[in-house]
Structure formats: structure tokens, C-alpha cells
Structure to design on (81 residues):
């Protein structure tokens, strides 16, 4: 299973899997900092800030990222000419 640096990070991660509160006014709110997002997907990506999770890992050097696009950009440094 995954490991988290503290209890708060685990709780935020658990909320992502157990369901987020119904959005008020069409916005999705972060349970930790109350920041609001237009989509649940954006909120989930934001929650990675609070959990410290970096699910996208470079297989070449081990560096991890919160977003797949950032990993793809990073991979360009490993291209051998």
C-alpha cells in the first residue's frame, strides 16, 4: 500500500477515494484549504499538493511528478541523440 508522511495526508488521500462533498454552486471545494475548482478532476489533481503524492515516476531516473504532462516534458532530457 501507499505510505503518507502524516495522518492529514492520509485523510486527504482517503477522501479522494471515498467521495468528495457535493459541489455547491457547481464548484468543487477542497476539504483542506477550501479552494474551489470547476471540475472534480481539477480538484483531485489539486489534492496531490496536500497529500504529497507524485504518481507519475520517471523510469530512467526515478524523479516523480504530480502531472503526466510534466513527466512527458521531463522525459525529453533522457532522449539520446
Amino acid at each position: 500500500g501507499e505510505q503518507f508522511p502524516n495522518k492529514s495526508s492520509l485523510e486527504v488521500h482517503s477522501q479522494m477515494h471515498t467521495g468528495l462533498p457535493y459541489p455547491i454552486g457547481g464548484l468543487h471545494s477542497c476539504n483542506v484549504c477550501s479552494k474551489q475548482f470547476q471540475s472534480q478532476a481539477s480538484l483531485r489533481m489539486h489534492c496531490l499538493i496536500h497529500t504529497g503524492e507524485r504518481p507519475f515516476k520517471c523510469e530512467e531516473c526515478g524523479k516523480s511528478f504530480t502531472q503526466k504532462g510534466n513527466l512527458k516534458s521531463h522525459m525529453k532530457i533522457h532522449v539520446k541523440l
Remarks:
- The helical segments are 7-18, 40-51, 68-75.
- DSSP finds three helices and four strands in the chain.
- The domain at 7-76 is CATH 3.30.160.60 (Double Stranded RNA Binding Domain).
